Amino acid sequence: MSVTLSDSTAANRARVQRSTRASLVGLVVSIIVVAALAYGPYAFLSKGNQQNLTTLFIYIILGTMWNLLAGYAGMVSIGQQAFIGIGAYGIVYAADILGLGLWIGLVLALVISGIVAYLVSFLAFRLSGGYFAIGTWVIAEVIYLITTQFDTLGAGAGISLTTFRGYKPEIRIAVVYWIALAAVVVAVAVTYLLLRSRLGAGFTAVRDDATAAATLGVNVTRSRRIAWVVAAMGCGLAGTLLAMTTLNVQPGSVFKIQWTAFMIFIVIIGGIGTIEGPIIGAIVFYALERYVGDVGFWYLVILGIIAIAMVLFLPKGLWGLISRGGRLQLFPTGLRLATPLATPLATTTSSPTSGTPPTTSAEDL
Amino acid sequence: MAESELLSVHGLSKKFGRVITADDVTFDVHEGEAFGIVGPNGAGKSTLLNLIGGVIDPDAGRIEFGGRDITRLKAANRAKVGIARSFQIPRPFVDMTVFENVYVGSSFAGGTRGQHGYDRAYAALETTGLLSLAETPAGQLRLLDRKRLELARALATGPRLILLDEIAGGLTEKEIPPLIDTIRGLLASGVTVVWIEHIVHALVSVVDRLMCLAEGRILAIGDPHEVMRSPEVIEVYLGTTFDIGEGRAS
What we know:
By secondary structure, chain A is mainly α. Chain A has helices spanning 21-39, 47-72, 81-97, 101-124, 129-147, 169-196, 198-208, 210-215, 220-246, 251-254, 258-270, 276-292, 297-313, 317-322, and strands at 16-17, 159-160, 248-249, 336-337. In chain A, the strands form 2 sheets. A two-stranded antiparallel ribbon of chain A has the order 1-4. Residues 6-10 and 342-365 of chain A have low confidence and may be disordered. Chain B has a 6-stranded mixed beta sheet with strand order 6-7-8-3-9-10, sandwiched between helices. Chain B has helices at 45-53, 75-81, 98-109, 114-127, 143-156, 176-188, 200-206, 224-229, 231-238, and strands at residues 5-16, 19-30, 34-38, 60-65, 68-69, 83-86, 161-165, 192-196, 209-214, 217-222. The chains are: A mainly alpha, B alpha/beta. Chains A and B meet through helix 7, helix 8 and strand 4 of A and helix 2, helix 3, helix 4, helix 5 and helix 6 of B.
């Protein structure tokens, strides 16, 4: 016999707008760009550029996943390299060693990433805030060390991915490019749809105030676990792509913490807490690496200075600048109330944007 | 008509270190009742609401809601069975809009998906007078509106029991009567209210029964006027320099 509010005011239907003209344009442009990129290898993309774009796609996936985890779900992890490594080793193990081939190997690598993330979460979730961050790093190091103990995985010496043996190089590069393109579309789309769902509202609620979220019925741990596992599978996906591009998995390379540092950099310069931010951030990061990366030591100094400057002067990142503080949203995740005043009872003249609440209505608090 | 108990608290105890904030607390709240709680600062009022809402676990004791033992139930699940809560210090989701804040309540605890969830959230904003601020990020609200948001989110869950923690605290005299009207409206629609408040005249004008807590213990419980007139309550709650006519002053 619970009393529902909507009973008395059932006539008032809330009209919620989930897409705007900008978001429709964004969707159409995205489809055109993806279609053009998919056609690219037949027309205008050289082998070198396909490889460059594959690298960019890996960065976009990594940035998107760290953004989901830290930007939306509020979990600052510095151990995501664990899942890059697991993805990379996972595809070698499943595709080559188990002999399941590229496609099943790819899927299995993702499943393994997800299972490991799920199991590890019971340990990592005992920690919060800064302790959680350090804890994820420690867990990543442990996973790295364990991986190097297995002779079948090449011990510490690394292992080659042989599933592409017999492919002509140009075919292999194109196939990997298409897989990476599909992967980036899936990673961004899954993140976008997840954040638009009820679950996405739960993520942000838990991030802003876990106690309040719990008293409103959000299962805090379950919500965090979903974000954690999805982000791990995304990083695992990036790991499989790394293995496919290098054809050789080195433990010291796939498990290095720099991966997480790059993810953070991508998210910070692009704009945290937006879908668009990590895409922009990945492009900028890729360009910096490409054109400034050969100055060696100074490259890292430059990255550091840029990151610090962004945090200080442009905390919403480049996308925050382009979108004029969030007014332009190509991929809106929020709920916009289109009819805030469509109530026959409202006698006040307040407008949706005015900062003053009605002061005379008996309905007032 | 026999009064049915919606909430039963039996022997509830909670210590933080050596500070006792709930000491063998036992009381019932009837279905449809307005139940007030007063007590000096540090009496354990908010702790009691935290225990009932499942934000913290008791050291000992049992809580029943609608005849069901909920002592081990997590906060999220208590919200789903119909216990809603407003916090003394508002806890908005600062980066979400007011409407999104309320939608969290209607869609998770309220269990209403999609359009039903939107409608429920909309109705809660209407009831609390927040509709004009629906699109504002909750972090930009001033105190009064943050308090309204606490109430709106709680309402949106479709509660059977609502726990109000100093919802009138910090409001002006002019702002209180509309609040009381809103709470009366809730009661009229059948919701049970447990309300902690320092503004005693507001509380006494609404509640059916009043409980006074001090140092985690129940000092008095019953008719609001009688409770406020009882010597123990006057001494503990109103302070130490009060002469109550029997020559007892301290």
